[in-house]
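Example 5.3 — Cation diffusion facilitator family transporter
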Amino acid sequence: MAWSAEKRIMLLSLFLSACLTLIKTWAYLQTYSIAILSDALESIINIVTAALAMYSVHLAALPRDINHPYGHGKVEFFSVGAEGALIFIAGVLIAVKAFQYFLHPYSLQELDYGIWLIALTAGVNLLLGLYLVRRGKQLPSLTIQGNGQHILTDAYSTGGLLLALLLIRFSGWDWIDPIASLGIGAWVVRKGYHLVRRSISGLMDEANPELIDQVVDILAKHRKTNWIDIHNFRIQQYGNNYHIDCHLTLPYYYTLEQVHRENETLTQLIREHIHSGDTECFIHVDPCRPYCCPYCQILDCPVRQHPFQETIPWTKKYVLLNQHPTLENTGRTQFSESLK
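Solution (predicted structure tokens):
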């Protein structure tokens, strides 16, 4: 069976992470630098998290079934959370190892050789991380993006380590090594926290402001005259799949066939402009009411009861509300009450 693009990418990440970990471990054995050991420890976590990410990509690609009607995409949030937790633990272990230096000082060896090895790993990690983030956005895949961000973090921390090693090389101050290790530990702990936070946000269906802005902008640009209003707009993400539901206000005199056609048109519009594995839309249709007349753009409406006054723009402020915009407490409420 042919492997998907996601699986091939994660296999590449896993293979390169294993190779770079071996190089960093060899560099530590040659130099006895705690900072290099800290970097190698983080790379070991890279291997574990890459394996978790690869498995989660496999699960997320499984089709929907009776027990998982929305698919298996949310497993990616568990993967990101596990990755963040492991990174956080690695950061704590790095800090503990750095503090041990002050109890048992040491001298570095073969520093030039170690510097060249670490420079090599930093360059490869930087290229790999940038590639994973770019491909993760193209697919899109939260797991691949998360793994790419993690590897970029590893590349940046390795770059900081390289600067510290160069400073030690030219100054002879070995005490910089544990200080650099503490810095790496703090950086790793911070990154682990953010990944765990991102995982919790996804599992709790926290709103994605960037995605909402993207979809609302699409709706506003392609707004039809007979789409009187859209409100109670919500998006849930399951891996690279989206579940979207909203309320669409149409003229109350439309036939069922006309309502169905407008529903399908709106659904197709969203699917064409959202690059995702699958976008599922549930659109609840509301009939218009007299209070809709002042912002209804159907100027030749045969049942209009009040004159058109203004076009209310479809912005995130209004679209997310679970009510018609004229019912919001913005000064239009008094006008709406007068129409009852």
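Remark. The two ends are 64 Å apart (CA to CA).
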